[in-house]
């Protein structure tokens, strides 16, 4: 039976460290979340981020905008948030309405307040191995592996999914050359293969993985026949599946058939309670980093650090 990589436990520990560091440093990090329209799922994500900020002692500003806002009006709101000294992080919740140019919106955020880590400048910094904000979900995955004592150095890592949200930045993060004083001492120097919908004979690739990351958004797509015995499996997917036996009429599942894969893998992240909680936690981490203006060291270095 696989060891469970508990994202809830690590997230709780890190959030305590973040709150402690904020208090010791005497800073109040500020995060502005911008939501366009009233999509229920997006609104739920924003509420969870706002609650996490408040519990950590951050200043949280919730900006709600009408769905028919123009591109120019939205970018003007972003510029105003960029200019405010008490706001250290600016996050525009996606997806945006179809008439909005998402790439232009992302580029409008000040790179030094881009705590989501998707501005072209920060992605360029990641590509070069320079300091900058890391995208929250890949960063959370790296923290999970590090906290579990799973080094990626020299390992064969297979990522199924090539999105800009997870697959591509995670590949860069795990490929990065890590020397003394690196951000995460056990994260980097991996041999990375990125698979996608056009990959031929996918199972033959995934069976070669020491660490398999599943981020394709297809419920329970990966079965035990696609996983090497003893491999580490990171399930990024979170999918709603209809289930009349549940009070809400659905259940949440990942991209992995958890029950059968956990019998074969060496370690695995559950859904829910694995990668999910870490995404918001690393958003808090990045916002604290911005508030303290620390690009050369871990902003938690002065607090308890159980995350590697």
Give the SSE map.
Layout: E1 3-4, H1 7-25, E2 30-36, H2 40-55, E3 59-65, H3 71-83, E4 89-92, H4 102-108, H5 120-128, H6 136-147, E5 156-160, H7 167-175, E6 191-195, H8 202-206, E7 211-214, E8 232-235, E9 239-242, E10 250-253, H9 258-261, E11 267-268, H10 276-292
Parallel strand pairs: 1-11, 2-3, 2-4, 5-6, 5-7, 7-8, 8-11
Antiparallel strand pairs: 9-10
Helix pairs in contact: 1-10, 2-10, 6-7, 6-10
Summarize this structure briefly.
With 308 residues, this protein is of the alpha/beta class.
Notes on the structure:
The chain is 36% helix and 16% strand. The protein folds into two domains: 18-113, Rossmann fold (3-Layer(aba) Sandwich); 132-275, 3-Layer(aba) Sandwich (Rossmann fold), CATH 3.40.50. It is built from ten helices and eleven strands. It has helices spanning 7-25, 40-55, 71-83, 102-108, 120-128, 136-147, 167-175, 202-206, 258-261, 276-292; strands at residues 3-4, 30-36, 59-65, 89-92, 156-160, 191-195, 211-214, 232-235, 239-242, 250-253, 267-268. Helix 1 packs parallel to helix 10 (276-292). It is of the alpha/beta class. The chain has a six-stranded parallel β-sheet.
Give me some keywords for this one:
single chain; 308 residues; alpha/beta; Rossmann fold; 2 domains; 6-stranded parallel β-sheet; 3-stranded parallel β-sheet; 10 helices; globular
């Amino acid at each position: 039976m696989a060891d469970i990589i508990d994202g809830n436990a690590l997230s709780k520990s890190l959030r305590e460290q973040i709150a402690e560091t904020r208090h010791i440093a005497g800073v109040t990090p500020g995060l502005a979340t911008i939501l366009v329209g009233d999509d229920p799922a997006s609104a739920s994500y924003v509420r969870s981020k706002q609650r996490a900020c408040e519990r950590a002692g951050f200043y949280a500003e919730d900006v709600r905008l009408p769905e028919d806002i123009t591109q120019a009006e939205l970018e003007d709101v972003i510029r105003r948030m960029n200019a405010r000294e008490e706001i250290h992080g600016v996050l525009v919740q996606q997806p945006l309405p179809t008439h909005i140019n998402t790439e232009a919106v992302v580029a409008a955020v000040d790179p030094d307040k881009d705590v989501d880590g998707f501005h072209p400048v920060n992605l360029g910094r990641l590509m070069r191995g320079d300091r900058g904000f890391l995208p929250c979900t890949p960063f959370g995955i790296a923290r999970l592996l590090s906290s579990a004592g799973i080094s990626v150095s020299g390992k064969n890592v297979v990522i199924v999914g090539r999105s800009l949200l997870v697959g591509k930045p995670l590949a860069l993060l795990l490929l990065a050359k890590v020397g003394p004083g690196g951000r995460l001492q056990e994260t980097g120097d991996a041999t990375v293969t990125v698979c996608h919908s056009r990959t031929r004979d996918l199972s033959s690739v995934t069976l070669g993985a020491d660490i398999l990351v599943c981020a394709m958004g297809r419920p329970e797509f990966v079965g035990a026949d696609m996983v090497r015995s003893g491999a580490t499996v990171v399930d990024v997917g979170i999918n709603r599946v209809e289930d009349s036996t549940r009070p809400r009429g659905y259940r949440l599942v990942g991209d992995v058939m958890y029950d059968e894969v956990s019998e074969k893998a060496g370690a695995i992240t559950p859904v829910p309670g694995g990668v999910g909680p870490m995404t918001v936690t690393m958003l808090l981490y990045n916002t604290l980093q911005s508030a303290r203006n620390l690009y050369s060291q871990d902003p938690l270095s002065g607090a308890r650090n159980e995350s590697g």
